[in-house]
Amino acid sequence: MFWRRNGLSITLAALAVLFLSGQVLAGHAALNEALARAHQPLLGLWAYLHTGHFVSATFENWESEFLQMGMYVLLTVRLRQAGSAESRPVDPGEEHEDIDAGPTPWPVRKGGAWLWLYSHSLSIAFGLLFAMSFTLHLLGSWRAAVAEHLREGLPVESLWAHFTSADFWFESMQNWQSEFLAVLSLVVLTIWLREKDSPQSKPVPAPHAQTGD
């Protein structure tokens, strides 16, 4: 019963850990190759986890993921795409909320500011996760740049100089654009394409013009 109720999150978490482990091992090897070419001491795996190389690469991607999902949550509040399984119905009269019987969450019973926070808690959470990831990406990217400059005997730039550099924003923008492209692809492709039994798809017999499931 536990697996049936939580199998999706367990599998996704296991895949995330698997691929993060692969990233760590590959990144560790790549950085040590660069250190060897510079005739500098190699790093152990634990030391590698504290380097800008690992921190920057990890949170650069997390930052773009949280930006993507946070913006998607907010944009779908007001905007529609006719025929897409990822959009709310174009006609408000077609909408309905199915609320299972059970205890009402306490912020709803409390009302006031607690209700407002709860009503927008998903976008707030994604906003905070994005801010955290962006900050850690910036710090990790700066530390990686400092280490590279030291290896090459170049002047070390300040955190502000790195924040305003083309290199840092290239790192961010190349991920941001790909995330929004991925969401756009899902929104548009679900107009015409189907995946049987997937909640991200309309039913197979559904007409292309139908919005949502």
What report would you give on this structure?
The chain has 213 residues and is mostly helical. The chain has helices spanning 2-37, 45-48, 52-78, 106-110, 112-119, 121-152, 159-163, 166-192. The chain folds into 2 domains: 1-48, no CATH class; 51-92 and 105-213, no CATH class. The protein contains 8 helices and no strands. It is elongated. The model has no long low-confidence stretch (mean pLDDT 92). Residues 1-26 form the signal peptide. It comes from Stenotrophomonas panacihumi.
Poorly predicted tracts of residues: none
The count of helical stretches stands at: 8
| Distance separating the two termini | 27 Å
What is the domain total for the residues?
2
Oligomer state equals single chain
**Secondary structural class:** mainly alpha
Biggest pleated sheet: none
SSE order, as H and E? HHHHHHHH
Shape: elongated
Helical coverage, percent range: 55-70%
Mean pLDDT: 92
Pfam families: DUF6766
Keywords: Membrane, Signal, Transmembrane, Transmembrane helix
Protein name: Transmembrane protein
Transmembrane segments: 115-139
Question: How does the SSE layout of this entry go?
Answer:
Blueprint: H1 2-37, H2 45-48, H3 52-78, H4 106-110, H5 112-119, H6 121-152, H7 159-163, H8 166-192
Helix pairs in contact: 3-6, 3-8
